[in-house]
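job 3f2a | input accepted
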Amino acid sequence: MGLAAKGLFILSILGTDSFAFAEPMRSGTGRILLFFLLVVVVAGTAGIASSQTPAAPVVSDMADDVVKVRMAPGATLRGISEKYLKDPDLWPVILRLNGIESITDVTEGRELLLPGSEVRLSTTALDTSLAEIQRANEAGAQLFAPILIRNAIDFRDQAVVQHRNGAYQQSISLSSQSIGRADAARARSEERRDIEAEARLSDRQGWVEGQKVSENGWTERELDAVLNEQEKLRTLSASTAQVVFRDASRFRLNPNSQAVIQRMRDDPLKRRKEAQISLVEGDFYALLAPESDRSRLEVNLANVDAKIDSGSFWVSQDRDSAKFSNYDAKPVAIVSGDDTLVLGRNEGAVVHAGEAPKEKVAIIGRLALSEPADNAIVFGTHVRLGWQAVGDGHGYWVEIAFDPLFDRMAESLWNVPQNRTDDVGLAPGIYYWRVAALDALGLPGQMSVARRFELIDDSAPPYLQIRTPQPDAILREAAVTVSGETEAGAAVFVDGEVADVDGSGRFFMTISGKDGSNDLTVVARDAAGNETTRRLAFTYVADRRRDIVYDAHLPRDATGRFLTATREFGLSGTVTEQAKVSVLGGDGALRSEAYADASGRFTLNVPLEAAEETLAVVVTTVSGYAYRETIETLVSDRPPRFRLSEPPPAITSTPRLDLAIAADPGTILRVNGMAPKASDDAVRFHIDLEQGANLIEIVGTNAVGLVSIEKYTVVFDTVKPEMTASEITAKDLGDTEMLSIRVAARDDTGLALTSRFRVRLGDAERSGILRYSKADKSYRGMIEVPRRADGSAPDVVVELADVAGNINEVTLSR
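job 3f2a | predicted structure (814 res):
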């Protein structure tokens, strides 16, 4: 190694920013020390030994600050640390100095660098203690070993102080203690994090057996039995077993299945749970917890393994093949040797023994259940289930459970040949059921949506008779007594409230009727749960006046009179439900009559006999109670009137037209379909004009719908007149000359009758007027001006204007 290389090596070991040397390197003392180290390195290379003994490490001094050691057979890192660093617990310092992650990476014959001075050892020990503290914290030491990690931090803080004071031996000792405490904290944290989890046998149907590692044979497993690692579990031909993990994930072993819970681990720091299941034979269905709480699950089979991210899947194992169905969007990865097949949602696969996984297939979708209907009550001790068929040659998987989550199984029927079951015997109670179709490969498809039914052995509902009130009765009292008879011992509910029932089945209950229609449900329920339901309808109308609410859209004037354009008046509104509404003339004669509907709405047409009338509206409720009020009507058959503050211009060069319109009270104005922008004493409109002719249509509508319309045309012109020809002649008058000016022009909207012009005479200027001649369609005019000394002709500027006010200024010259 050359001198420069040796120097760089020392710098790389020490680091110019290291804790011990950062400050000295900025001084002359530090530079002298660095030069001394470089000299020692050069001198030390000549003394490196070239041989080694089998029993001890080969050591070569590289400098006072660095030593090279070769791992000899039988040597240990702790032994080397004790021999060269005087402390066996400083072996992590050696790893850090050599950039080695794990002690397992230190092999026989490997050369290791060791600190060769107290300064170097103290610096590296401080760095190593900090790294060990960080590793311990990452392992959860603050949670699982708080005292040990606190001690490690305190020892390191003391070591830093001693190092700064130059007490390097004390600093090394303190760093060693810090490393030891941090290493112990990390070990304890990892030990406490790697907790053996437990599972529970949450449901069993039929005979279920298990075998722990400590047991010599199979024994029965009771409900809620705790299951441990390496425990075996098996079901017989008519049994199932559900296992629940700590995170609420679960799997159900179907009949004739055997599994081994290989591993269950719980890491409380990362809140991660791991499970590994070996399926020996049979099949199971798994439903894992939500992804945020889910265990990491691996399934091992005889020929393949599966890494499960899916939250819902099925797997089976027999002598010839392994089968998988995935029902979740998360994947199921099937691994056989170097081959992996990933199943997505609603995909399945069959892997034959000795073969790699080849292809996946789409599993059959959800079936529609047909009978019994959801929430049906089935009387008797047996139930027959039916569902949608998927074609010949397919079997079905039927599950019946006591709960909607299928955690407590009542029956599991595999490979049912038809799309129905025979009579299934069950005890009375409430059940939930679902079905999945099996395809030609034996893969179960998606489970159907579950349905519920209740099995009742007593199928005779109780009789129920209602005596009061009579059906559709109209009552004038709020207190209503509901009474009748039912089966002795049955309970009666009136709209969910319990009625009084005597020993012979007679019942009564007083309720408070609500105003209007009342529709009650009366239910009689016997001890077996059989029910008889009756509907009870009556109307309660209180003897009180209720305001007639007329529809807001009916036109009225400022005094409240109803307005109409004809001698027939439409009246509508809301009164008491089903009341009769009558309209009487001033002489008491009936003009019109109608009945309100169940919501109180009424509509009728009333003929009028005069332009102004006072009418009576009489409301008679269904109970016979009557009240009245008067209304006034006015025939308004004159169209609305409106006027503009000033008429719009026929031609304009202004892009926006402003209109102010005054109208009769109650008149709604629209200009070109637009509503007004603002209003005060007059309604105002602002209309953006387009080039050319613009139609302005003003429409006024009064309260009874009569309309008045006025139309105007406004030409919007921004095009300036165009000069088509010009001529200037001069007549000599001695000291002056008479200029005759003619300018021909054209404009689409029309030219102004006059045009101004100016004659420039040096610093002076004279102006005049040109008048338009329709005969030759040109402007003409004359002006006398002084003769210029040089005889040159003066400039003439003409302002051509059109009727819209657009001006084009042109300059003429002779």
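job 3f2a | The chain has eight helices and 62 strands.
job 3f2a | closed
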